[in-house]
Write a structure and sequence with these properties.
This protein is α+β, with helices and mostly antiparallel strands and 289 residues long. 69% of the residues lie in helices and 7% in strands.
């Protein structure tokens, strides 16, 4: 497999991390005013960051209701991921399954050696063999591109800021504390908005990159195009309650859920139509190469 580094993705990830670091510094500064000292917010956010880095995969799986499964329980799924991992020159990731009607998949983990690929039972029931391979290869491409960690960090900062926006008023206390807390909440709104826009912009590009990676791993761009259309088409058949419960994982899914708070604001993914058109162009290029 002729895997070429996507420097466009690398550049976007580096720029996103730089902006996130700047946001982190501003956020700590505002919280310093809020708490009255510098050490506490630094320790708090630093501790949360370390916990998020090491336990993000477990948190993501838990939020989806997914659990790790062994080869005895899902032998075909394990065989496919092992074969595709070898083709992608990656260590075999942990395999997880979520019991839900929503047909989707995502990858999580801090690096190639600590990655997890999760699929839903709805996805396993919806796709044929080639389509399933293509989706799994797409998730492995995210692992190979190392974009999962950047998305995790960006999502973490956004989550903390949103928490302060939502619950900061509970800590307002007397009037003397009112002004610093209002400032903290206003800055948190700004941090949340910027983090969200960064997640949205990076997520759109990384999906295109993972689509190209999946096509290189499997050699079948048409299979991924077919899988994307199948998943997108089946979303309308899933109960709205299930969609709302899982919409907050939008940035990590192969196809976004257009429901819930995040789904209503904006999609973190390019349209399925645009992704399919690019895959068809890639297929034509591979046929003439």
């Amino acid at each position: 497999m002729d895997w070429k580094t996507d420097w466009g993705l690398r550049g976007r990830m580096a720029f996103t991390m730089f902006l996130l670091f700047a946001l982190y510094v501003v956020f700590v500064g505002v919280l310093t005013v809020y708490f009255g000292n510098f050490l506490f917010p630094l320790i708090m956010l630093g501790g949360f960051s370390i916990a998020q880095y090491f336990f993000s995969d477990k948190l993501a799986l838990r939020s989806m209701g997914a659990r790790e499964v062994d080869a005895d329980e899902y032998p075909d799924l394990h065989r496919r991921i092992e074969r595709l991992s070898q083709q992608a020159d990656l260590p075999k990731p942990t395999v997880a399954v979520a019991e839900t009607q929503v047909p989707n998949a995502f990858a999580t983990g801090r690096n190639k050696k600590n990655a997890t690929v999760a699929v839903t039972t709805g996805l396993l029931r919806s796709l044929d063999a080639d389509e399933l391979d293509a989706v799994l290869a797409h998730e492995l491409a995210h692992v190979k591109n190392r974009d999962v960690m950047v998305m995790t960090i960006a999502s973490f900062l956004s989550t903390i800021a949103f928490f302060i926006v939502r619950w900061g008023w509970l800590f307002s206390g007397d009037n003397r504390q009112g002004a610093p807390i209002i400032v903290a909440i206003l800055v948190s709104i700004l941090v949340w908005a910027i983090s969200f826009l960064l997640i949205r912009a990076l997520s759109r590009y990384r999906e295109y990159s993972a689509d190209r990676g999946a096509a290189l791993i499997t050699g079948k761009p048409a299979a991924l195009a077919s899988a994307l259309m199948t998943i997108d088409g089946r979303m309308d058949r899933v109960p709205k309650e299930d969609l709302r419960q899982e919409a907050e994982m939008n940035a990590f899914f192969i196809i976004p859920i257009r429901a819930g708070f995040v789904g209503k604001i904006a999609s973190t993914h390019p349209s399925t139509e645009n992704r399919v058109e690019r895959l068809r162009e890639l297929e034509r290029e591979m046929e003439t190469a």
